[in-house]
Amino acid sequence: MATSEDFMQFVLDQLNALEGISHRKMFGEYGVYYQGKIFGLVCDNQLFIKPTESGRAFIGSVQEAPPYPGAKNSFLITEQLENSAWLQELVKITAAELPEPKPKTKKKR
């Protein structure tokens, strides 16, 4: 089951106070970015956040699952999904621990 546009919009609405939130459709699902860093995936109407030590400490009791078959486990956000302040803080904490995105190289013709 692919993610509905309504669910994706709900996630974006929860994060709307953060500057630099964007998303991109990927294989029928979505990658979610904060200030250019991909921090999560929205798959099958569920939000998955990349696992980090700081994020794990912030969440406490973590629920983990793969966002799609064959993927590594990510933090599955369920109970706190409607708590926008909590979710925004988790995104900031997670992004701070993630590496900077690699610059894109131009293709030679």
Helix content range: 25-40%
* CATH homolog superfamily: YgaC/TfoX-N like chaperone
CATH architecture field: 2-Layer Sandwich
Helix-strand pattern:
HEEEEHEEH
Tell how many strands the DSSP assignment holds: 6
Pick out the low-confidence regions. Answer: none
Structural class assignment: alpha+beta
Strand order of the largest sheet: 1-2-3-4-6-5
The CATH class is Alpha Beta
**Relative strand content:** 25-35%
Calculate the mean pLDDT score and round it: 93
Principal-axis shape:
globular
In whole angstroms, the N-to-C terminal distance is 39 Å
Structure characterization notes:
The protein has 3 helices and 6 strands, in the order H-E-E-E-E-H-E-E-H. Strand 2 and strand 3 form a beta hairpin.
Task: List descriptors.
3 helices, six-stranded antiparallel β-sheet, 6 strands, 109 residues, alpha+beta, Yope Regulator, Chain: A, globular
Concise account of the structure shown:
This protein is of the alpha+beta class and 109 residues long.
Question: Topology of this structure?
Answer:
Layout: H1 5-14, E1 21-26, E2 29-34, E3 37-43, E4 46-49, H2 53-59, E5 64-65, E6 74-77, H3 84-97
Antiparallel strand pairs: 1-2, 2-3, 3-4, 4-6, 5-6
Helix pairs in contact: 2-3
